[in-house]
Amino acid sequence: MPWFTQDFGNASSLHGPGRKAEQAIEDARETVARILNCHPGEIVFNGGGTEGDNHAIRGGAWHMRHAGHGAHLVSSPVEHSAVGETLVRLSEVQGFTHSLTPVDHYGRCTPDALLATCRSDTVLASFMLANNEVGSLQPVSELAGIAREQGILFHCDAVQAAGQLPLDVFELGVDLLSISGHKFYGPKGVGALYLRSGITLESNLTGGSHEDGRRAGTHNTPLIVGLARALELAEQEREEHVARFRRMRDHLIEQVMLRVPGAELSGHPVERLPGHASFVLDGIDSGTLLMHLDVNGVAASGGSACKTGNPEPSAVLLAMGYDERQATGGLRLTAGRSTSEDDIDYAVNVLASSVEKLRRLVVAT
Ligand code: PLP
User: Fold this and answer.
1) Does pLDDT of 310 surpass 80?
2) For residue 308, which of 287, 327, 329 has the smallest C-alpha distance?
3) Cystine design at 319: which of 10, 77, 122, 149 (Cβ 3.0–4.6 Å)?
């Protein structure tokens, strides 16, 4: 709070209040670096997961092409749009090409499949640690091992995983890794990018020499301090929270499978985020379902970018082999720190009756 209310110094200024803010940012950098098991100089603060993904991919791709290594990028078809759309833009208007490593029915890639997607001119690979829509975990350290053998930069979008899984960049073997404050109970609009020492990225934002010339723009001191503190708390309490998330999630999955006819668990049954449950509800438009849930106080997400009456199938579910009809019926429910077993029982009751109503409506029309 003091960084919002009384200590307004600009961290780039040489006066006392500025130096105080700079010290707070450097302390935050040390905290984040300790948790990611890297050097503080390898952390770049930014405006969130989208910016970190863009910086890593665009910056890595431009730098590698400039150095004459090639212009081919690889990723998976289940990435967040912060990665997927960035690859599309680079390919459509900036002269790169990209290929997507196929995923299995759980949304996971194998190292062999990645190897088969790489070419002699591949310069960068980007794979997420945990999927936002279906919760499945990618075997990132194995994928990063393949990239290393091929001399390819490896970026990992760890936005969903932070606060729930260990994020040791050395163990993961990644070159670049992005996280975002709001996924671990920190502030929105702030993130951090791990950038392994020795790697140069073209800067996405040019201007001042903030963040060692890697990200221009005045530091948002309160958000950076908040991100580091939230990550520190999440890490200190991770095992305790994860054990609880798992219990809640397993109860939720069990109840949904028991009470909602035709529900299928999507994503990997075991290798998934501890608090994450996702389902495919055949014949249900998830946009309409989400509205029914919302009016009854259940905040959920759909898999697809849907508008009522015009459901768009989820690209993630399609890539996992679901058909178009199934891919419009994705539902994601997550357990958080304050979720109780009663909340879950309530949500499942609402879900079961909403699905029944929607199915009756479909039969009637
Ligand atoms: N990557 C993943 C996997 C996400 O789930 C999200 C956001 O939900 C992002 C990137 C984008 O992060 P931000 O919202 O901080 O820009």
Assistant:
1) no
2) 287
3) 77
Phi then psi dihedrals of residue 302, to 5 deg: -100, 170
pLDDT tens for each residue of 195-231 = 999 999 998 899 999 999 999 999 999 999 999 999 9
Q: What is the whole-number distance in angstroms between the Cα of residue 157 and the centre of ligand 1?
A: 8
* pLDDT above 70 for 364: no
> How far is CA 191 from each of CA 156, 216, 283, 293, rounded to the nearest angstrom?
14, 14, 38, 31
Q: Whose CA is nearest to atom 13 of ligand 1?
A: 49
pLDDT range class, residue 306, cuts 50, 70, 90: very low
Asked whether the beta carbons of 108 and 136 are under 8 A apart, the reply is: yes
Q: Which atom of ligand 1 is nearest to the CA of 182?
A: 15
How confident is the model at residue 307, as a pLDDT?
46
Alpha-carbon span 272 to 340, nearest angstrom: 20
To the question of pTM greater than 0.85 for the whole model, the response is yes
Q: What is the mean pLDDT of residues 106-123?
A: 98
Instruction: Count CB atoms within 10 A of the CB of residue 288.
Output: 20
Ligand 1 atom closest to 128 (CA): 3
> Is 79 touching ligand 1 by the criterion CB < 6 Å?
no
Using DSSP, state whether 20 is helix, strand or coil: helix
CA pair distance 230, 35, nearest whole angstrom: 12
Which of 187, 175, 167 lies closest to 45 in space, CA to CA? 187
Both structure tokens of 251: 């109860």
Exposed/middle/buried for residue 304 (C-beta within 10 Å: 0-12, 13-18, 19+): buried
Residues designated as active site: 306
Average confidence (pLDDT) over 119-134: 98
* Mean of pLDDT values over 38-62: 98
Q: Which helix (H) or strand (E) holds 293?
A: helix 286-295
Q: Give the E-state strand segments of 4-152 in sequence order.
A: 43-46, 72-75, 97-100, 122-128
